[in-house]
Amino acid sequence: MSDQFDYDVVVIGGGPAGYPAAIRAGQNGLKVACVDAWQNRDGKGAFGGTCLNAGCIPSKALLESSELWHRAQHEFAVHGIQASGLSLDLAAMQKRRATIVRSMTGGIAALLKGAGVTAMFGRGKLLAGRVVEVTGQDGKVTQLRARHVVLASGSEPTALKFMPFDGQQIIDSWGALELDAVPKRLCVIGAGVIGLELGSVWRRLGSEVVVLEALESLLPAADAQLAAEAGKHFRKLGLDIRLGAKVSGAQPGKDGVTVRYTDAKGEQSVMADKVVVAVGRRPYTAGLLGEGSGVSIDAHGSIVVDEHCATGAENVWAVGDVVRGPMLAHKAKEEGVAVADRIAGKYAHVNYALVPAVIYTAPEIAWVGQTEAQVRAAGAACKIGVFPFAASGRARAMESSAGFVKLIADAASDEILGVHIIGPMAGELIAEAVLAMEFRGSAEDLQRTMHAHPTLSEALHEAALAADKRAIDNLNR
Ligand SMILES: Cc1cc2nc3c(=O)[nH]c(=O)nc-3n(C[C@H](O)[C@H](O)[C@H](O)COP(=O)(O)OP(=O)(O)OC[C@H]3O[C@@H](n4cnc5c(N)ncnc54)[C@H](O)[C@@H]3O)c2cc1C
Fold first, then answer.
1. Which of 189, 238, 406, 419 is the most buried (most CB within 10 A)?
2. Rounded Cα distance, 426 and 59, in Å
């Protein structure tokens, strides 16, 4: 590196997009700094971004704990386990969540160090000529001259103009993860992934949960068969999901918040002790770009990049939630790694057609590739294999036999076009489908791959067989 630069690469943001970019750049022998502005409630800095501090990891910790609580109450007896005197210690549950978060975010700091990355807590701003101005937590300002800059500043929750977050009664997803008491009445605005996961957590822990969704259908991005099955299970759990409900206002009062909405029947309202606004997230670029940075932002607030995550400015890249595409940690990570490899002149690839989607509800939901409707709209003749978990010995043994695997393959070439799973460990099972599809595998490839018995993965095997009406463990219709 010439004296002209302090670093080969400066990464702004240490979430799932930024920290992998920094680590891979370090592995590639480059001199790297990673600067992150995240501050936890105690004011301390932490790496890991939204995902580790306030998203993926804490939500999964609470989903796991609340699911165990639910099963202890509703399922143990089926196994012949009579448990009496069960009680909920929410403080211990929340302590476990916080401990997991602390150890995971501390782990990121260790990984950055291990890759030789200079890690800094502070706010980075890109100035002209790839100078990054860093304002430390103590207010000290330094300037870093970088050969390459990677922008990975993530996203923030979208607020509703007419009901701004107050941190008490009207809260965002981070607030909903840190409640210290189970609200009697919870209103979740938005039946997206985050709303459904958080609604499930608090419903299982005892809240009456109303979910208001403006769209007329649940999970419109999912395969319709999957979404219909999911709706049944959410309602069975007791989530009161109201579709076509357009929220128009909220009135906090001493007995709770009155949330007003309109639906097909007209003006409606619902009372809640807490309201979680989970209507989506938007790219976060506040204070990120100085005069002359050369980086453009589109109408949605995303940093404009090409298919290689290059911004219009020379040697400035952007990855993760702050650019187009699904706001998912694994997509962010792949982009971060790919950019670090490109900077080092190596081959890199991100297959945007195969970004798996997972919803960690019970049953879990996961899919990759095209839905049946998308395949049919494209005019391709397809064959479909469905295998219910009710016919899986392992699922029955787990008392988790709800749901199915649906595999869609091209009728002529046999290539797998989409896999849609609702059922136990769907998020784990989808990995096999992603791998098969990454290699452009066929239904026959899966059919001829041996799957251990009894495992949940046999359901995918059988769904592939069912696509050719050759399932063994289910009737072929
Ligand atoms: C409740 C919830 C649950 C979720 N669950 C999942 C899940 O199960 N699976 C999944 O794939 N995704 C999940 N997500 C989404 C996931 O968290 C994001 O897609 C992911 O965090 C995006 O990574 P990122 O690095 O692009 O952004 P972020 O994680 O937001 O990280 C950006 C970082 O940059 C920092 N930063 C911003 N501006 C600056 C600046 N100027 N200077 C320095 N630092 C800056 C921020 O403080 C932050 O630390 C969830 C999100 C939420 C809210």
1. 419
2. 17
